[in-house]
Amino acid sequence: MASADDLDSTTVELAPIALGGRPVKAPGEDQADLVTVLGKRNRVRLGAPRYGDYVAELLSRSSTLPREIEELVQQGYDLHRVRPSLTLLPDLDCVFVTAELSLELLTTPRVDDGTHVAPPIAYEVKPTVVLQEAYNETSTTSSEFGTDIGKLLAKVTQANVEERNGVRHIQRITGHGVNYSEVGWRLRATPDHELLGDVLGLEAIIRTPAGAQLSGQFRITADIAVKTGLDKWLTQHFGPRGNTPALSVTYPLSG
Q1: Helices (H) and strands (E) in the chain, counts
Q2: Which end of the chain has less Cβ packing within 10 Å, N or C?
Q3: What does the buried/exposed string (b/e) look like for 204-228 if buried means 16 or more CB atoms within 10 Å of the residue's CB?
Q4: DSSP string, 80-119
Q5: Are 31 and 218 contacting, i.e. CB atoms less than 8 angstroms apart?
Q6: Percentage of the chain with pLDDT > 90?
C-alpha cells in the first residue's frame, strides 16, 4: 500500500480509520462501516452466500459426470458450489482502493458423535485472475475518480502491472486457494474501474467428505482513500488499519 510520503504530488491521503483501529459496526453482523476522521462512512456488506450441490447441478444438465468429478464421488466426496455476496459502498469523495474476501472452510459430521471429519478442500476457485489492460500513464483522459484520486490509484496499482504478449495489464481480481482449506479473492481498484456496488462472479467449488456439513468463516479487509485537506502527520499518526478484518461472519454452506 502506498504511504503518505509517496504521495507528495497529490492532495489525496489514505484515510485513517476510526480511533483505536476498530471498524464501526452498523446494525447487523453482516455489515460494517470504515469511518474516516472526518466521519465519512464507507460501508462493507456481506450478504448470505448462495450454495448448492454441485454434483446435482451437473446431473441436471447431463446424465454423465466429468471423469474427475465421477472419481471424486466414487471416492466418497461431496462437492458444493459456493457463491459469496459482497457489496462495497464508499462515501462521498471516498474510494475503496483494495478489498479482500477470504473464506475459511469448516466441516462437522452430520451427527455429532465425536467422529473426526477430514477438512474441506477447494476443488476450484473462480475467477483465478481478471486482467485489465493497463492505462497509458501519459494519458490526459479524465478519470471518474477525479484527478487526485486517479493519481493515487495510479501509484497503488503500479505494483500489480504485468506484461503479457507485449501488452501491459493490471490484476484487478485474483482468486486463490485451490487444493487448500481457505480460499479468497483480492480486488483492486484502478483509475478506470471503481470498487463500488455489488461484486459479482465470485465462486468456489468445495470438496467435503460425503455427508459432512460445510460452513465457512468469511472475512473482509479493505483499504480506502479519501480526498482530504488534513495534514499528512494526522494520516501517518492514525494510519490505515492494515490487515485487521472489517467484518468476520460465519455462514452455513450446505443443507
Answers
A1: 4, 15
A2: C
A3: bbbbbbeebbbbbebbbbbbbbbbb
A4: EEEEEEEEEEPPTTEEEEEEEEEEEEEEE-SS-SS---PP
A5: no
A6: 41
- How does DSSP classify residue 232? H
- How confident is the model over 106-162, as pLDDT tens digits? 998 876 666 677 899 999 999 988 766 565 544 433 444 455 666 666 666 666 666
With CA atoms as reference, report the closest residue to 226 among 5, 10, 44: 10
Which amino acid, residue 21?
G
Joined grid coordinates for residue 23: 471498524
If you search the block for the grid coordinates 489492460, which residue do you land on? 133
Q: Rounded CA gap, 7 and 190, in Å? A: 16
- Residue 218 is inside which H or E element, if any? strand 213-227
User: CA-based Rg of the chain, rounded to a whole angstrom?
Assistant: 21
Q: How far apart are CA 171 and CA 182, in angstroms?
A: 21
Residues 23-70: tens digit of each pLDDT: 444 445 688 888 777 777 889 999 899 999 999 999 999 999 999 999
Q: Do residues 144 and 194 make contact, with C-beta atoms less than 8 angstroms apart?
A: yes
Q: pTM for the full model? A: 0.78
β-strand 167-176 against 213-227: which pairing, if any? unpaired
What one-letter code names the amino acid at 233? W
The region, left, alpha or beta by phi > 0 then psi within -120 to 50, assigned to residue 176 is beta
